[in-house]
Amino acid sequence: MALTYITNGKIVLPDSVVEGKALAFDSESGKIVGLVESVPADAAVIDAEGNYIAPGLVDIHIHGYLNEDTSDAKPEGIRKMAYGVAENGVTSFLPTTMTVSQAEIDAALNAVRSLKEESKTWGGAEILGVHAEGPFINPSKKGAQKEENIQKPNAQFLIDNQDIIRIVTLAPEMDEGHAAIKEAAEKTGILISMGHTGAGFEEAVSAVKDGVGHATHLFNAMTALAHRDPGVVGAALSTDVTVELICDTFHIHPGVFSIIAKQKPGKLCLITDCTRAGGMPDGEYDLGGQPIFLKGIECRLADGTIAGSVLKLNVAVRNVLANTDLSVPEVVAAASYNPARAIKAEGKGALLAGYDADIIIADEVFNIKRTIKRGNTIYEA
Fold it and tell me: Which domains does the chain have, with CATH numbers?
């Protein structure tokens, strides 16, 4: 074993912060060994300089970054995204497609498929699969997605691509008798998520019983929570599904962060829903064949419709810490351990013995100082 020790930091575990110990990992196997009381005199040491030592972040919903987009189906673009998000503390991610043409979706799946194995060893975030947002959505809740590309839910598409798709976002009410949901739930390990949906509360609860296990960007592009009509939001909060939240302070009011976290302990997943405008200056970009306009933290279509975000996942952590009384382990888990468990990514998202050595060093406001993936430094500030 070639052990490296990260010392002099606050080690963020799923349920606590540990000080006065070192985190040991094996750079040969790329695995975490565990916490140790003391470090051998001649050991390889990384000094965390009093900062947080936390698990690498896991983004399960990100369309693009640095003027690249998953749906472009360009391997070099997806690689550029992976290297870019590593600077934000992301060590693994799901490149996310949207409701484009079937040919474009197929090409994007193939592009990601061709890179998945290589991504374990390259100098960027690791690809864990794809989040297919659509094309099985409700036209009335399409958001920034093109109506002409919307399809009826199709289980066979999911069965055929279960090697690469980890999450699919669909509208349960567009699936008659929830036939596709039931078949996909039975025959694949894909996490079925309700989103871009006009379903009522009863339909959404029924869909959860039939195999839905997740809710895509909670509150956005779904029926709202009202006291006489609880909608998809009410169904997500009253069942056992995991939920995504875009904590950029624009998609979701900061006052809501704490409400959802306390309602969904261990089930909250911070995501970015980032577009190709992420990491870029204000101006005009493209999303699914439509022009989008970036101004500050707001991305919109020409008609004002919100069109994804430019959020960075470490900034989402910062925003939740700043606007709630949640503990550091709770918030960090929402951007690492919870999403990894939601997609059954074994050995990801926590600083536990035997897990992959996906580690970040971050300051009090989660500026990233260093990103380590499978025991190798892939970014250093």
Answer: 3-53+355-380 (2.30.40.10), 56-342 (3.20.20.140)
Q: Is 42 a catalytic residue?
A: no
Instruction: Name the amino acid, one letter, at 254.
Output: P
Alpha carbons 99 and 148: distance in angstroms, whole number: 9
Best CA proximity match to 52, nearest among 260, 327, 345, 356: 327
C-beta neighbour count of 295 within 10 angstroms: 9
The candidate with the shortest Cα–Cα distance to 377, out of 22, 68, 48, 17, is 48
AA letter at 362: A
**Using one digit for the tens of pLDDT, what is the confidence trace for 6-34?**
999 999 999 999 999 999 999 999 999 99
Taking residue 49's Cβ as centre, other Cβ atoms within 10 Å add up to 11
**Whether the model pTM is above 0.70:** yes
> Which of these is catalytic: 69, 248, 273, 356?
273
**pLDDT, tens digit, 9 for 90 and up, residues 153-173:** 999 999 999 999 999 999 999
Residue 237 main-chain phi, psi, to 5 deg? -80, -20
Which of 143-152, 228-237, 263-272 has the weakest average pLDDT? 143-152
Q: Which of 217, 107, 213 has its CA nearest to residue 164? A: 107
Mean pLDDT score, 110-118:
98
End-to-end CA distance of the chain: 27
Check the CA dihedral 96-98-104-105 and report its sign. Answer: positive
According to DSSP, the residues that pair with 126 across neighbouring strands are 92
Q: How far apart are CA 319 and CA 270, in angstroms?
A: 11
Reading across the β-sheet that carries 31-36, which strands appear in turn?
Answer: 31-36, 22-26, 3-7, 44-47
Q: Strand, coil or helix: what is 64?
A: strand
State how beta strands 52-55 and 10-12 pair: parallel
